[in-house]
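for the recovery benchmark. tokens below, seq after
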């Protein structure tokens, strides 16, 4: 039976978490079916098949089926940058061999949230660790990397190169960090995994563009929460100024359900009105926003936001590494040393650099200069940027192109930022979307806009490469059945 007709007609490329919840509720499928469905899809195309390399690891089938059976019993009675306890059967490598054998002390608080009985814990059973790594991260407007130039998006030493599902032929060698063939951003494995039908939705982390850029390239709905809204404890960090939690899904309903779980007591799903009525929307002139001066505020001649990130990074990572009971590395200095000693794996010929890691070990800026830098970026991006625009034009949300610097402006302001699917490039098929920003704490307004957008524009397309593959497999199976008959 083909992947499109198995499991009560569930198509992993298109089905949403909300639809799965309905199927589970009426007993058309059970949680074990979902485990087998998604593991089957991962087996077909993660390393084999299209070789997407979206996931670094999945929990053992035995543990997944045990969890599935427990969820079914409860129902009957009424990446890889977030640390998980060894009992879940998942490593937390951050894409580096330096953490390949590390054992976390406990689950990150955000992991505990999604293990509560809910829509999310019901459908996100695969618990896969997507490729989200220290090797790959979209870092501000100058597009530099955690390790250094020219490491591209979606690459990690452990997982290899994640491939876009919408670009035939895969990533073009030597393409720019956000070039048209790249999967875009350090949560690219999570995005590709959802689009490929490996899981229905995903948690992710973002400093600047790590959620929304790869979601944009995978025709998904993605949202980074207001900095500070959700706990980032136990997640691979950069800076508390801009780090936040978020998620990706194939619909605004799924994403709202995920956020209802993450932000306990919230009801973002109630904002999904499928209408623009009552919502005041502004559209930016992308030519003026693409390289706005507010992105490049100078502090003593250098980019202020980069200086703040560089100041925070080593301390934040050293603190993060305290989440492990067992680890070969305990600091950025240890990671640099490990990379040098294992250069054949961590510093391959195509990416033999780690100048950003070594640079973070240098002298930090003074507390006075740090405070000055924080005031500079917040004033430019928040007070005189997003907030002023919202107030001056009496707006609830601002929309603009994802292929610009809007996510960086939102990061500098500490504001939420989202993406919604729009179309597909004529020249290579890559997906592209629109960006949505709002005031701090205004996720409900963003969900209202996402829902209205989804009701207004055509439904997102499943990845053509996998649709074609599924069709070919189905045709082959049909022929085999006919021959047998």
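predicted aa per position
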């Amino acid at each position: 039976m083909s992947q499109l007709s198995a499991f009560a007609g569930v198509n992993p490329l298109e089905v949403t978490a909300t639809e799965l919840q309905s199927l589970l509720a009426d007993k058309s499928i059970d949680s074990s079916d979902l485990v087998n469905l998604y593991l089957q899809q991962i087996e077909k195309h993660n390393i084999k098949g299209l070789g997407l390399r979206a996931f670094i690891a999945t929990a053992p089938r035995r543990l997944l089926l045990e969890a599935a059976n427990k969820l079914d019993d409860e129902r009957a009675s009424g990446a890889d940058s977030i640390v998980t306890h060894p009992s879940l059967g998942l490593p937390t490598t951050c894409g580096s061999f330096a953490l390949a054998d590390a054992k976390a002390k406990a689950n990150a608080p955000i992991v505990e949230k999604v293990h509560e009985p809910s829509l999310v814990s019901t459908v996100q059973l695969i618990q896969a660790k997507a490729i989200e790594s220290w090797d790959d991260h979209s870092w501000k407007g100058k597009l530099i990397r955690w390790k250094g130039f020219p490491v591209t998006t979606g690459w990690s030493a452990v997982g290899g190169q994640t491939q876009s599902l919408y670009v035939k032929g895969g990533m073009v060698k030597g393409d720019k960090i956000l070039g048209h063939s790249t999967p875009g951003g350090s949560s690219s494995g999570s995005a590709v995994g959802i689009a490929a039908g490996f899981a229905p939705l995903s948690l992710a982390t973002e400093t600047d563009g790590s959620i929304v850029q790869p979601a944009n390239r995978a025709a998904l709905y993605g949202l980074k929460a207001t900095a500070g809204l959700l706990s980032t404890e136990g997640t691979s960090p950069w800076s508390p100024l801009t780090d936040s939690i978020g998620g990706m899904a194939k619909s605004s309903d799924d994403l709202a359900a995920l956020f209802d779980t993450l932000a306990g007591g919230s009801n973002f799903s109630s904002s999904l009105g499928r209408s623009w009525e009552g919502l005041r929307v502004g559209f930016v002139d992308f030519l003026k926003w693409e390289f706005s001066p507010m992105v490049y505020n100078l502090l003593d001649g250098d980019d202020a936001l980069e200086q703040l990130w560089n100041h925070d990074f080593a301390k934040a990572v050293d603190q993060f590494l305290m989440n492990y009971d067992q680890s070969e590395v305990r600091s950025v200095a240890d990671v640099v040393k490990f990379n040098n000693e294992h250069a054949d794996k961590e510093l391959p010929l195509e990416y033999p650099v780690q100048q950003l890691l070594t640079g973070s070990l240098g002298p930090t800026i003074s507390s006075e200069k740090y405070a000055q830098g924080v005031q500079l970026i917040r004033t430019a991006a928040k007070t005189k940027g997003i907030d002023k625009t919202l107030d001056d034009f009496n707006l609830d949300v601002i929309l603009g192109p994802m292929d610009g610097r809007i996510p960086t402006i939102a990061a500098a302001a500490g504001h939420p930022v989202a993406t919604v699917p729009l179309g597909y490039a004529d020249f290579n098929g890559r997906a592209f979307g629109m960006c949505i920003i709002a005031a701090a704490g205004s996720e409900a307004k963003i969900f209202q806009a996402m829902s209205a957008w989804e009701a207004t524009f055509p439904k997102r397309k499943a990845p053509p490469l996998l649709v074609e593959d599924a069709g070919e497999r189905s045709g082959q199976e049909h022929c085999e059945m006919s021959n047998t008959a």
